[in-house]
## 1
Amino acid sequence: MTAFFDTSVLVAASLRGHPHHVAALAAVSSVIRGEYKGVLAAHSLAEAYAVLTRMPVRPAIHPSEARRILEENFVRHFDAVSLRLEEYREVLRDMADAGWIGGLIYDALLLRCARKKPCERIYTLNVAHFQKLASDLSDRICAP
């Protein structure tokens, strides 16, 4: 099985105090153990780094620790998907045509990445947003 992981799941798996840590870590660990293939958006690495280094936790996560977390847990074990300029333009057009605003654009971009790989599951902590944006994929979208 191949599963796409939203940034929210990567962050939850990385932070012991996160309310979804146990479930997110279990899903990520299945990829690390080779039980199934993991896919993420290349942009999620930058987004997760930004979140990890700004989280209000004590002690704060040092930038080098955030990099280590991302390298060891995700870069080594997941395939990364990037978008081309034309794909960004298509997502922008789709968002505007549907009248969707604000931060939904980030979920739409992640879903576009998920569509580039044949994924049986799309893990996110934003299930309602993802299903709103991609009703045709709703049977694959779930929380870990």
## 2
Amino acid sequence: MKGLLIKDNFESFLLKKNMLAWLFSSITIIIFMASMRNIYTYVLIVGVMLPMIGCSTLQYSMEQDEISKFNKILLTYPITKKEIIQAKYISGFAIIFAMNGIMGLITMLLYVYGYHALDITTGLYTWVSGLIFAFIMTAINYVGFFFLGNKKGTIMFIVMIASLAIGYVCLEFSFSIETLLSFGKMNLLIIGFLIAVLSMILSYFTSLKIYTKKCS
């Protein structure tokens, strides 16, 4: 499993094409952060952009696996299908904690103490909400990629990003961010956390079943 984790992370971060994609995403976020110093941009970055970027690692590794037909070779290795799926999900967890955990926290501190765009309570609530949302979106995307494959899964991923962007714009015109954030925060976080945990558990077992059926 350790070798599979190294291989997936190499393909996700160190291949030239994917390195450029990460660089482009990072520059885009930095431009947003530098030029738009308001609560709306903060919610967009932490609640939408970082969670969606975190879902890209599986797509990168699956793309290379399909090009090299590595899945057929992988089945001959002394590793179970369960361990293969576990490795994919561990990689997903790692990027979520890196992007939404660390980068989201840095973004929150910048908007709270650097730009003074929001208070620390709202910043922490939005940051945790983005982290929860990242797990839910990862759960959905992983099942989609394992079921549809890389190409169709990528289309699904793009449609989801577009839908989220449109939905966010519609919410911005319909409600103020302050109004949305004024709801029962703790109750929503607890409910969101439970949904995220349940989603990841169901996602893992569903992906394992799909992968086992496809490779049997």
## 3
Amino acid sequence: MNVENKNLLHRITAHSFFKAVFVFVLASISIGFITNFIATRKKEPEVKQSVTISALVGISKITFTVYPEKRIPATGNWSTEMDVTVRHTGSPTIVLQRTGLVTNSSGLGVINLSNSETIPPGNYDFTFKGISHLGRKYSGYNLSTVYSYVDFSLSGTKLLAGDTSNVVDNYVNSLDVSTVIKNIYTGVVKEDLNRDSIVNSLDLSIQIANLYKFGDT
């Protein structure tokens, strides 16, 4: 091999060597950069975001138990047609009213609220006026859940019977007594105060016991 060829070979070999070294260095730098980037990303603290949601939950259904007085039989015979009025405790403003609501034989009634009726959790007064009964007010009962239940029977007070005349005055007087006498020995529900399926002296005696009494308003 002549000198010129040897020099060419040396130049090619040197060029290839430096090119290989350059590629190796460049690869090392790239690998180091990527490794350092990954390590740095791992060390960055995670940013935790908290979201607070608040909402006013209204009452959508009220279930209650209330007993009328002196039924025969004395238990499981508490079905009554009634009007119900609900107010904020201590306020005269009516927030909810139902007429002709019927409780079952266990004295259980249900008030379903429509979307337009908004009752927030809080303390409320309930007034019940039975078809043959004086109004009875139950004060300061808390409603706190969407489906609230209130047992008014635990108070020990029942709806007083005797307001039977067509003059709905929340007062037991001679007008009411005359309607019971008029329907004596019939099965008229309104005058059958004890709900034993017949109007008789037992119903009249219940009415006389409540004579001249006013109901709650």
